[in-house]
Amino acid sequence: MSFRDRRPRTSTLVLTGLFIAVVDRYLYVREPQATGSPTPSPTSPSPSPTLSGANPSPTETSPAATAPASVAPSGTTAQP
Questions:
Q1: Is the per-residue pLDDT at 34 higher than 60?
Q2: Domain ranges of the chain
Q3: Sign of the CA dihedral with 22 first, then 24, 30, and 34 last
Q4: H helices of 1-80, where?
């Protein structure tokens, strides 16, 4: 059976057209790919954080400085 003498089905043409359209849209919206050349390094790299003893340690706060556990909204009274 030779396919040169026959016209392709309408469904085959529709599916082929949809496939080409989807591939075209994918190529249009995808993120650009690297071209293989390395990215240039920054001229002044940012310093990395160091773990030295120069930083002060956190201190404990006194209980008076903290807010009470239950706070009533304004205009109402707090009830246990």
A1: yes
A2: 7-31
A3: positive
A4: 10-29
